[in-house]
Amino acid sequence: MTTDNTDWHQHDFKKYSFPLGDIPRLHHTDPQVDELIKKKQPVVLTGSNLVGAASKWDLDYLEKNMGNGEFTVFISETDKFKFFDEKKLVEIRSVAGVHVKDRPAKEYPRPAKSTTMKIQEFARRLREWKSGDERLYLQQALNSSSGASVVQDFIRFRWDWVTAKQKLHNWGKLTYNLLLIGLEGNVTPCHYDEQENLFAQIHGHKRCILFPPEQFECLYPHPVWHPHDRQSQVDLENPDLSRFPKMTNLHGVQTVVGPGDVLYIPIYWWHHIESVKPAKYSVSLNFWYKAGPVGQVEYPIKGYQKVAIMRNVEKMLAEAMQDPEEVGTLLKTLVLGRF
Ligand SMILES: O=C(O)C(=O)C[C@H](CCCc1ccccc1)C(=O)O
Ligand SMILES: [Zn+2]
């Protein structure tokens, strides 16, 4: 895997069963950049200085300057931090048209539990962390109460540059910036988001493995009503081909982003992200934008549009049937032996 940003040692990286190409790394002034973004293809933009004002955001600085608020921190017994949407549990009960606050019918295992803590406690626990301890991952939307000097840095981001990208590519509004501080070795397993994403790396490095929306059938996402909606059911490190046979068709692209790099993760693209050596922790900040207006539909429709259609079918059927479990039965009746 060639990454001209440093001489990555192959032996350090996990080996996967599927082929991985390279995501192009281009200087942000290269005209190919906007061509790739227009085609919803991932690309690493270098030299943008988008979050140059945050280049000093190491643990010491953030500990001193993030203010006195409580921050959302996920804690996991393993290296995986698979997003779990607690809101879905209530929504499941409301599928039957009844909002019931009691415990959900099914108990879902939670890979990582969510808690809050002050930045000082988080920093202390990160410094004291040793192999075998539970892992921590701070994931908090930045806002105006994030400490005065951090807000000053935030204001000095290259908002002209990123807003020009937003306008040029007809993205919707900026929903929020998620600040991510995690231990080397933390993994955010394969999932997709319904937003355009300019992912800025600030401290340390992250290995990002991406798959296009068309590989939906190889990645077997949880149902839309599941708390792991948008997350793949498959474990890329330990493929279960009896349950997920189409994993053998997986082929992705990858890159390693370092400080100053910005990775464009197109809407609906699958991504699997790992904080890698040598730094002990990594700091990233994403810029999530709502999808732009659909505009004139072109045929044949694109992979990501099929994903949006499948999501709507699942939602409509879940709403129509009393019990989400019946959705699978109805869909099998609809297609098996008929199409
Ligand atoms: O920026 C992105 O989209 C990423 O996936 C970055 C990822 C953490 C995201 C956590 C998360 C996943 C799903 C819903 C809400 C929050 C990382 O860098 O570890
Ligand atoms: Zn994501």
Question: Any chance you could write out the topology, listing elements then pairs?
Answer:
Elements: E1 20-22, E2 25-27, H1 32-38, E3 43-46, H2 59-65, E4 70-76, H3 87-95, E5 112-118, H4 119-128, E6 135-141, H5 148-155, H6 159-168, E7 174-183, E8 187-191, E9 195-203, E10 205-211, H7 216-219, E11 252-257, E12 262-265, E13 270-276, E14 281-290, H8 303-320, H9 325-335
Parallel strand pairs: 1-11, 2-3
Antiparallel strand pairs: 3-12, 4-5, 4-6, 6-7, 7-14, 8-13, 9-12, 9-14, 10-11, 10-13
Bound molecules: 3-(3-phenylpropyl)-2-oxoglutarate and zinc ion.
Can you give a write-up of this model?
The protein has 339 residues and is of the alpha+beta class. 25% of the residues lie in helices and 26% in strands. It has a nine-stranded mixed beta sheet with strand order 2-3-12-9-14-7-6-4-5, with helices on one face. A five-stranded mixed beta sheet has the order 1-11-10-13-8, with no helix packed on it. Helix 1 links the parallel strand 2 (25-27) and strand 3. Helix 2 packs antiparallel against helix 4 (119-128). The protein is globular and about 60 Å long. 3-(3-phenylpropyl)-2-oxoglutarate is lined by residues 83, 139, 180, 188, 191, 193, 197, 199, 271, 273, 284, 286.
